[in-house]
Amino acid sequence: MKKIYYLLAFAGLLSAGCQKQPLISSATINASEVKTLNLTLAASDYSTLGSTVYAYKTNNFNSTADAKQYIPTILNDEYPQLSNGSKANVTFSQNQQVALVDSVYKDQQYTLVTTPVNDYKLLPGNTFSDFSIAQVLAWLPYKFPTPAATQEEILTFAYYNGQATATATFAFLYFNGTWRQAYLLTAAQYISVGHPAFSQFTSSDDANIPSYLNAILKADPSVMATAKVGSVEYVSFNYYNSAKVTTQRVMTLTFDGANWTIQAPATLAFLKSGGTWIADPTVYYTLTTADTQLIAASSIGGTAFAATLTNLGKYGDFESTWTSLSTPTKNSYLDQAMILVLTHDFPTPKVNINYVVSYLNYVGGADVLTPLIFQYNGTAWVASQ
């Protein structure tokens, strides 16, 4: 059976930014020239925003929304001479200090039970009353079928480590459409950074929490054994806020080769349009399992194409029966499949904006992420390739 790899959204392919290019002088460039720039913001770039904008001092943005708001100001200041249609892939530093999750602690705790209903049996095919981490990750969608966009669960259960079973507590985070294990601090780790009481941080620790978490992660050999530049840890910790409420927070830290930091590089695309730089409105989307199942259950191609649809439903990628057809037919069936997904997933699409839809094309024994471009003209989806 083929291995299936579900990849990150196509926009993630832009995340490795190049070194900042020298400022292009208006004296050496034709005003009508269209350019594609790959830039990494430096301190001098943030300084063009002016002292009233926080990034002027921090040299980073707190969110993607802020980056979309302020980076056009930098581009309009430094690259005003480039013509409409020019593009810029801009890499910037993003502050990840804002917690992904901050919920009342008691609301996030759950202990799996065997009576009156056996929680472990909720996982289809499971006959045991203990779980490995992989089994918990498979079980979570059945226990929490409609999780919040960022939801954390602190689970206590009979944990099987491959050799023995013992009661243990782990944190799990739903983020970016999937469940993953978070890094849950232990009582000993709070003590290691000077917090022996209550196993928690408080609002008075706010400025120091990133450095505490960095020290904890660097002291954990199981983390550092596999850490490389760009590695990410979602660290879950108990927090007592100024309103005297105990919550559970998750903070994202990225390894820069020496330390775990709350800042990480991110890349966004921008477009010169109407004489000014704007955030590129292109929507990038990669088919999900639900999307391929939707296509597999359709009547595209009629009965003669039924086996191909069955194959898609089983493996989640598009076999050569899609791509080996004559071009008009191939484009027709693929376009129908993508338009079916777009109609389902984007009920209120933006008009005349590119939607880049990527699907897994099975080529030469491997899946190749392949993009197709569509636009909604106000009444129907139209292929642009």
Question: Could you write a compact summary of the structure shown?
Answer:
The protein has 385 residues and is α/β, with parallel strands linked by helices. The protein contains twelve helices and 17 strands.
Radius of gyration: 25 Å
Distance between the termini: 32 Å
What's the domain count? 3
Main sheet characteristics:
9 strands, mixed
> What structural class results from the helix and strand content?
alpha/beta
Helix content: 25-40%
What form results from the Cα inertia axes? flat
- Tell me the strand percentage band: 25-35%
Order of helices and strands: EHHHEEHEHEEEHEHHEEEEEEHHHHEEE
What's the count of strands?
17
What's the total helix number?
12
Average pLDDT metric: 85
Question: How would you characterize the overall build of this protein?
Answer:
- The chain has 385 residues and is of the alpha/beta class.
- It folds into 3 domains: 10-96 and 264-279, no CATH class; 97-261, no CATH class; 283-383, no CATH class.
- 26% of the residues lie in helices and 30% in strands.
- The protein is built from 12 helices and 17 strands.
- The chain has helices at residues 43-46, 55-58, 64-78, 105-108, 133-143, 187-192, 209-218, 221-224, 289-296, 306-315, 320-323, 327-345; strands at 36-40, 87-95, 101-104, 109-111, 151-160, 165-175, 178-184, 201-202, 232-240, 246-255, 260-261, 263-273, 276-279, 283-286, 355-363, 366-376, 381-383.
- The strands form 3 sheets. Strands 3, 4, 5, 6, 7, 8, 9, 10 and 11 form a 9-stranded mixed sheet that branches.
